[in-house]
Write a structure and sequence with these properties.
296 residues; mainly alpha; elongated
């Protein structure tokens, strides 16, 4: 391991507890970087620590601009690294509303549909991490739209689907936005599905049903849950997928005031959770929350 990689690894861990102290080592890290790949890694670290963690977007953008002139950026890999740094800088500018500076960076760093998908996903993730979900969903939509022009096996499509999952987890308490977020995420997950992979379709449907329930749209939620059950029967799904659907059904029936049906769905969810636990799925906390909702 080089001195750069050793320090970067330590500062990545330090950023979890002391991001200000970790960020203060950026010039030391830059001095140690000796290859285009190390500069690339430093750029990604900068976007994460300065932007996502600290919200020091202008400072982060300035440091990224300086990295584009780094002495190690020589040879055939240099231009690709500079393009990546431009994309990271564009996100920093978007986050402070500097559209003109952001578009300049986009023009320099976005050359393909894959680049567009990547930069919009990064912006969505960064904004969501700062609690700015209404802005995040706009970029997630753009990322999902860009991904439609890519083959499902492209790595950036899977990355976008993961961003969608991450944002949904962070936005769980954002009731006014969860429906829009989940619909967008479901589209991203569907786009990411390899041919014949029913689990991506299942997750997209589950996210849609979950969003409909959260926003009080009980009729479309019922339709999505019915389709989930049909898909599970068709594919002979395991207990984990069936648990998730049974849990949604229990919530739906409770919201509809159908006490007996909610209790029956809860019993099914408990049975599936027990079987899923034997396969390594820990659903105890989720099941406890569900029981509180249904039983009180």
């Amino acid at each position: 391991m080089t001195d750069f990689n050793d320090l970067l690894e330590r500062m990545t861990h330090r950023a979890n507890q002391d991001p200000v102290g970790a960020w203060a080592t950026r010039e030391q890290l830059a001095a140690l970087a000796a290859t285009p790949e190390e500069v690339l890694h430093l750029g990604a670290w900068t976007a994460q620590v300065a932007g996502t963690v600290l919200g020091h977007f202008i400072e982060g953008a300035g440091f990224l601009a300086g990295l584009r002139q780094h002495r190690a950026l020589t040879g055939p890999a240099a231009e690709a690294v500079r393009a990546s740094l431009w994309r990271a800088e564009a996100v920093q500018w978007w986050c402070v509303g500097r559209e003109e500076a952001a578009e300049k960076a986009v023009a320099a760093g976005v050359h393909t549909v894959s680049d567009r998908c990547r930069i919009e996903g990064l912006a969505a993730q960064t904004l969501a991490s700062r609690g700015r979900f209404s802005e995040a969903v706009l970029h997630l939509r753009r990322a999902e739209e860009a991904c439609r022009g890519l083959p499902a096996h492209d790595a950036v499509v899977a990355q976008t689907a993961q961003v969608a999952r991450n944002i949904l987890t962070m936005a769980d308490h954002q009731a006014p936005l969860i429906h829009l977020l989940a619909r967008t995420a479901a589209s991203a997950l569907t786009t990411a599905a390899p041919p014949g992979d029913w689990r991506h379709a299942h997750e997209a449907l589950w996210q849609t049903a979950r969003a409909d329930l959260a926003s009080g749209r009980l009729t479309p939620a019922h339709a999505a849950i019915h389709e989930l059950s049909r898909l599970e029967d068709q594919q002979k799904a395991g207990p984990f997928e069936r648990y998730r659907t049974a849990a949604l059904a229990a919530r739906l029936h409770a919201l509809q005031g159908r006490t007996a049906a909610a209790a029956q769905a809860l019993e099914a969810a408990q049975d599936f959770a027990t079987r899923a636990a034997r396969l390594g799925h820990d659903l105890e906390a989720e099941l406890t929350d569900l029981q509180k909702i249904i039983v009180g």
